[in-house]
Every structure is written in C-alpha cells, then in structure tokens.
Write a structure and sequence with these properties.
This protein is α+β, with helices and mostly antiparallel strands. 28% of the residues lie in helices and 26% in strands.
Length: 510
C-alpha cells in the first residue's frame, strides 16, 4: 500500500486521480519528487468514456517499461477513422512499434495506472475535495474537504488534473474560453446478439453517421450522430430505446441490442474550451482541466497523458532545483499549441459529420471520396491522429532528426538496452554518442556534475535509417524528444547542457 506523506513533506499535490493525474504523479515520482494525489470521488467511475490509445501514448508507456500492460489486454486495430468516414486510415505504415489503434476501456487504464502508482509508493487520497487555493512566492495552500473534516494542505506546486469543471483552474483565476454545446450525439455500451462482422462498423447515411467497435465479451461501443435528434440538449436523459431508434434510422437494424446490467448510455455535446494559460505561478493544468472538445477520434485521453509526460520531468527538475529558470514556462509554450491543434481537428471532424443540411451532407460525402482517392491524405491524417507528428519548436514538415522532433525507438548495438526507449526508463536525459571518438563526452569530468539527471550511452545504430544517417550524437529529453543533435559535417562539439540541465560550476558547466 502507498505510504501517505505528511502534508509538509509534499513537493507537489496533483488534484484528480483520473488517468492524467495518475500518470503525472508517476512521472513526478520518477523525477525524485514527493507527490500526493487528491481525488474527490470515493470510487472510480464504473463506465468508460474513453477507449482509444494511440501509438505515441503507447510509446510513452514503453519509455517507462510498462507498455505491455496495455498491449497484453487491449484490442489492436490497424486503422482508425476521420470524421466517422467509411474510408479508413491505415496505421500500418507508421514508424513505431505500435502501428495501430489500441482499444481498452478507460476504467481499465485507470486500474493499470493505479496499480503502477501503488508499486511506486505514491499515495492517492480519495474523498479529498479541493474547495479553494491560495499561492505565495514559496508554495500553494489548498482547502480540502476530507471524511475527517476540512483541512489545509500545502505544497510547493499544485497541478489541476480535475477535468473540464476544474476547481483548481477556477480558483487560480485562469481563463476558460470557447463555446457551449450546440448539438449532441449518443454514446452507449451495450450487448448485441446480432453484431456487425469484423469487430467494427463505420456507416454514413443521409440522416447521420454511426460508429461501432467491439469491446469484448459481447459488449459494443456505439456512437450515433443522428440528425433527427442532434438538437437534443446535453442534459436530456438518454435511454436504450433512444439508442435503438437511432441505430434503426441510420443502419436499418438495432443489431440485437439488449439491456444488460453493464449497459451504459450518455449524451455528449460539442462544447469546446481551452485554458488561457497552462500555468499561473505555482499552479499548473493538464488534461481536461486545460482543454475539452467533442471526442472525435478519441484524442482527449491521449492529449492529456502526453501533457503529463511533457510536464512531469520539467516540474520535477524545477522542484529539485536543477532546471534552467525558464524551463517550466516551456510547458505552456509547447503543449498549448498541441491542444489548440487537437481542438481544431475535432472541430473539422464535427463540421463533416454533424451538419444536417444538404450542403453539410454533400461536404461529408465529397471529403470521403477525396479520402479514398488520395493515399497521401490518409497518411497525413493517420500521422496526426497517432500523435507521432508532434514536435516542439520545429515545423511539422521538418526532418525527423530536427531539434524538438520525436525520437523513434531506434534499434541499437553495443548499448545497455536494445533500443532508444529502453534507455529512457529512468526518465533522465540521455546523451547517445554514435561516434564517441570525436566528441568531448568521452571525458569523465566533462559530464560529472550532471550524472544525477543525465545518462551517457555509447552505441551504434543497428538498422539502416536514412533519416538518421549522419547523426553522430543526440541529446534526448526525458519525454523522448530531441534536445540537440550533432550531424555530419559539423565540427565536434558538446551538447548545450546548461540550456537544458542548468549551469554548473567547473568542467561540467562548460
């Protein structure tokens, strides 16, 4: 069981024990930060809104050595959809060990992350509801309602991972801009006696669109964008009869839908919001507390988990005192554009499937034709959905080895791990020398002051990679993005360690 730290011993309090909050807490722990997670709910919700885990999220789990916990249980599907269109996106070409969409209910992801936190010894305190906060130059005080009464907890930093209705965001005075819902769709998990073949169905009709995917054990997830009821408000109760009627209108069958004890139904709207800032002093936001949108393509869970991976090492470095002064500000600078991009993507998909006018239906059908006719378009959309295209400080069309780009899981020879992901287990920077003789990293005293948060590895690429040919050394961030590279014909030089790991006195600071 996780040991519950004293309030005075906490460096960071994470508010919210959903997937984003738990993954962030794990990343902070790896960085040597004393962390506690507060959750207002007594128990985990029994049903799962999110199902989809994309390749980049699996890669980030792989960097910490736990991806197989998801791949052993989830259902891999080698394709995805854009705007519920019938011409699907093939993921098999992606440069990753996970070239597929993985379906696993969010509840199970939360259970796996909770088990991981317990292994690490990070406490999750349930029935702890945050009601207010105050921050000063040295820390943040939280007002918390607990089963034993109201108390105050203090930490150096607080991160709100408490969803779209974030109390942390509101109390920190961070703006929340966007639009309310203008239309709704139905989501439902139920059992089918006459399901479609193949484990998935995407169907477009003049009256709307339907998407279905098998969850296992006879259960299916259905999403219907039914133009006949698209104006129903979010708060209107939804019944299995409503879902059955939509399926009949859109597919001509209810697929043998039947009520069961584990049936779950929800009405979801297209409300879209984005935080004006991901940081206000010592208060930060991640996941739905920073951005919400219609779940087109199932991107929200992945976006939030990748927020946490970006923030975790930066906040840990700041707490431990070795980060450059401006490092924590790069969290908003890097992740807010990604959040806005996903929001724009969601809006574009909604424009294709949620416009019931003749013009809207014509646009959807014409775009589907274009999608089927142009492989390059399918590949571009697949790459964007996968999360593998995200880069920091570089154009999306930049070369793979450009600074800020994701470093793929390059296979290695003569290294302590068979590939790059295996070098990142400890969530440290990795200086990977592919031509060790011509760089200063062979000198022990040159790097001595950075050893606690930098691993130096000498290796060779084990496979031919034209996009990485000529790269003689690279500095990899803890989140798997490239901080620096030395290429042919550059003269031998050392990486800008002070820019990333802070200045030190003596040889290691030069």
């Amino acid at each position: 069981m996780a040991e519950i730290p004293e309030a005075s011993a906490c460096d960071v309090i994470v508010v919210g024990a959903g997937p984003v909050g738990m993954w962030l807490a794990a990343e902070l722990h790896r960085g040597g930060v004393r962390t506690v997670v507060l959750e207002r709910r007594a128990e985990r919700p029994p049903h799962s809104k999110a199902l989809t885990i994309y390749p980049r999220t699996l890669e980030q789990f792989a960097m910490r050595g736990i991806a197989e916990r998801w791949t052993q249980e989830g259902r891999p599907v080698p394709s995805s959809h854009f705007a519920i269109l019938t011409n699907r996106l093939d993921f098999s070409f992606l440069d990753t060990r996970f070239p597929y969409t993985l379906f696993l209910p969010q509840r199970r992801t939360e259970e796996l992350l909770a088990e991981h936190l317990a292994e690490l010894g990070v406490a999750v305190l349930r029935e702890h509801a945050v009601t207010g906060l105050r921050q000063d130059a040295d820390g943040v005080d939280l007002d918390v309602v607990t089963p034993a009464g109201t108390t105050s907890l203090r930490a150096g930093y607080v991160v709100g991972c408490d969803g779209g209705n974030s109390v942390v965001r509101a109390c920190a005075g961070i703006g929340w801009t966007g639009e309310p819902s203008t239309w709704t769709a139905i989501l439902g998990d139920t059992r089918l006696t006459d399901p479609p073949p193949g484990g998935a169905l995407t169907l477009n009709q003049p009256g709307g669109s339907i998407y279905m995917v098998a969850l296992g054990d006879g259960r299916w997830r259905l999403a219907t964008i039914d133009h006949a009821i698209i104006a129903d408000p979010v708060g209107k109760p939804v019944t299995l009869g409503d879902l059955r009627a939509s399926a009949l209108r859109l597919a001509g069958t209810d697929f043998g839908m039947r009520e069961a004890a584990d049936t779950w139904l929800s009405r979801v709207g297209d409300e879209t919001r984005h935080a004006a800032a991901y940081r206000a002093g010592r208060v930060l936001l991640a996941g739905d507390a920073a951005h919400i949108h219609f779940p087109a393509g199932g991107q929200g869970l992945n976006l939030g988990l990748q927020d946490a991976t970006n923030l975790g090492w930066k906040l840990a470095a700041t707490v431990r005192g070795w980060a450059p002064e401006e490092l924590l500000d790069t969290y908003h600078a890097e992740r807010a554009p990604v959040g806005r991009d996903v929001i724009a993507d969601s809006r574009a998909q909604c424009a294709l499937f949620a416009n019931p006018t003749p013009a809207g239906i014509a646009l959807r059908d014409r775009f589907n034709e274009f999608l089927g006719a142009h492989e390059s378009l399918r590949r571009e959309l697949a790459l964007r959905l996968s999360g593998l295209a995200v880069g920091y400080g570089i154009p999306e069309s930049g070369p793979a080895s450009a600074v800020g780009a994701r470093v793929p899981d390059l296979e290695l020879r003569a290294a302590p791990a068979p590939s790059v992901h295996g070098l990142l287990r400890a969530a440290k920077f990795v200086l990977l020398a592919l031509s060790p003789a011509d760089g200063p990293w062979h000198s022990p005293d040159w790097l001595a002051g950075y050893r606690d948060h930098l691993d130096v590895v000498t290796a060779e690429l084990a496979d031919k990679r034209p996009d990485w040919a000529g790269v003689r050394a690279l500095l990899i961030r803890p989140d798997g993005h490239l901080a620096w590279a030395l290429r042919d014909p550059d003269p031998p030089a050392g990486p800008p360690l002070a820019s990333w790991l802070g200045s030190l006195s003596g040889p290691a600071g030069h």
